Predict the 3D structure of the following.
Amino acid sequence: MSQNLITESMVFDELKKAIVETLNVDANDIKPETSLINDLGAESLDFLDINYRMEQSFGIKMARHFVLEHVEEMFGEGSAIDEDGALTDKAVELLKLRFEEDVPELQAGMDMDEVPALVTAGSIAAGVMDILESLPEKCTHCGASDWKAEGAAVKCGACGEAAVYANGDDLIKAWLEKVQTEKNLF
Amino acid sequence: MMQIYQGIDIVEIGKFREIILRHPDFIPDIFTEKERAYCDSKKDSSVHYAGRFAAKEAGIKALGIGMSGGGIDHTLREIEVLPSKSGRPELQLSGWIEKLSQKKHISQLTVSISHSEHYAIASVVLTGKQNTV
């Protein structure tokens, strides 16, 4: 539970700050639907820089593995990527659920290297929000239920220790298990 | 039928240096222990890290994977760039990247890295077999 200490708009503002500092672009050009590659010209080093900035701001660990890599690990080789290195029908269905919005460009048979262009400021912010929502009810150090936000960082009001969140990869795996239980995709 | 896959990448060394200084997790996240030992033994390690980063990116492009964007891409760590006995850099794949390369029946990997004062550049050529229907 996030306990509403860090709101979606706070996350998006922090992400905008990270993008502006990394890419030297105008903050007004950054909307939730903005593609970092197509609209802002980001390259891979920039993605890493932005993600690390978000980790440092919020004291979180972003995912280290792509969702489709987790799919193949959990549901078997070939479940997400076919023999030609293209996305399977099921991978596309899953990514549509993951993006939580209509992404017409997402089609079965598309190459994997076409997917990063679909990553938007909104999808990165949603990934950060997922992690922040894993804030435990009680402090893992002293057991107190007294979280306080200091800017983007959440600390225990009793002992002062920083909040410990679930990491991005564990949350993706938990989400995949939930989707599989509900939809039986794989 | 034989298929050749090619990827190229260029890294601005100054920008790369700023990023690794700003984010202490960057080097251990992206580079293996052996790569770190090699680069750290050099006078200006960041130039060698930048060259290896370019080689990893070029490898990812050659494989047609692309970066994940939504996180910190550990697949880069699964492309290890180390010198051979003769000193020429070589690529070693592991994990998911290795599995993806097997799908493309990659049998040969070659990499070339170069750098100037401001830029590091790498080119990767993979030789594989085209899947037949």
Q: What stands out?
A: The beta strands of chain B are 2-12, 79-83, 89-93, 108-115, 119-129.
